[in-house]
Amino acid sequence: MCGRFTYLFTWAEIHEQLSAFLDNLREDVGPEITEQPRRYNIAPTQPILTIRREGGAYQPQLMRWGLVPEWVKNPQEFPLIINARAETMGEKASFRSALKNRRCIVPASGYYEWRKNPDGSKTPHYITLKDGKPMLFAGFHSTWMGPDGEEIDTAAIVTVPAQGEMQSLHDRTPAILDDRQAATWLDTANVGSATANGLIAKLKIAETSFHAVASRVGSVRNDDEGLIVPVYEDKPEKPEKTESAPKKKASGQLDLF
Question: Is residue 202 situated within a structural domain?
């Protein structure tokens, strides 16, 4: 799965990489995109940067991490969906329409995963691409509209079975796309559900590296560069309880910030 990740690049760096294979990627965006600070511990229900196709252009946008399909009547009674399993995304009601019309990518610098130890404890690890480039997670987005006209844009990240040495950490990983695959995934105008599904199904393992990090990452209150610093696994730390995502408001409405 993918439950925590980082965003340490500037929008200029992201734009430089994406514009090489995405024609008409918007550059004139607001400060919420261009002035976004480095984020070392992005958690569910928080805003995340997404890229989606809108008309003939590609649009960066902040969305709430936790997909709420447009057909949901009461978000309070709907589970928080942060990941979509690739094997069933074409079958699940929550993703069928999004697979066809609302695909997006989520740029990231790296993500965290917790390895289960023989004694039952878990050690967090930080995973990045070996070449240092941004990770491009495949994702879905949706716009939920409430009865009073309120609306919120939400997103989820697609996951696939882990391969190679990543299996030592967890049995799932985010679906990480290369440049060509990202362009295909985003092209909802010309690439249908079956092709998009096949693209994810045939993904090869990304060239990643990982190292153990401090248990402080388990708390969403911690968001600093110390979270990605390597620690030695043979020096056990005092476990820090992983915090769950904040509860939704009783009003049934959702917040982006």
Answer: yes
